[in-house]
Amino acid sequence: MQHKKNNRGKLIVFSAPSGSGKTTLVHRLMKNPRLNLAFSVSATSRPKRDYEEHGRHYYFLTPDEFKKKIAENAFVEWEEVYPDHFYGTLRSEVERLLSEGKNVIFDIDVKGGMNIKKYFPGRTLSVFVQAPSVEELEKRLRSRNTESEDKIRLRLAKAREEMQYAPQFDIIVINRDLDEAERELTRILEDFLSKE
Ligand code: 5GP
Questions:
Q1: String of b and e for 64-97 (b: at least 16 CB within 10 Å)?
Q2: Which parts of the chain sit beneath pLDDT 50?
Q3: Would residue 1 count as lying in a domain?
């Protein structure tokens, strides 16, 4: 299953409201060599946070650069996730990782997740990571301390909206405890990747 260089790698889409622990879980799963995962770095036009690096967390583009790529049909999917903040999956990124024989993992919003699944039917597993409650989500967002009050409100509103999509995903994982969620996801991914 794993280290075949036949361009038949699989795709695993992780979507979740921010603050659900999704990004931490993705990082943990990527450390597992048995899963042979590579992260699809998205493009975005939102400002870079201090700790972020171009090419590692995102490809940071200006809104104009982003719009040019939309016109060139460079994206598998893209969304204006927040006003003037575009996010998108580059076709070149996914193709590069698949041609390296990797399984590709995505950390993207719910609509993007659905679109990846439509674009690569039959070999995509969609996973929705849910915080135990909206209250818990709010607590996590505040403790992260990276966003202003306005942005936290925006993210919470988006989280409520995104939770409506959960039933459309193949798998829903409730992240009460990171270790437990990691174990559950490892089992699910190993099973999915072992099938033809
Ligand atoms: P953040 O600004 O916190 O990095 O991400 C905000 C939201 O954008 C998250 O829900 C994240 O999953 C989503 N996102 C990141 N990359 C992409 C992408 O390539 N496409 C889509 N549709 N959403 C993305």
A1: eebeebeeeebbbbbbebeeeebbbbbbebbeeb
A2: 1-6
A3: no
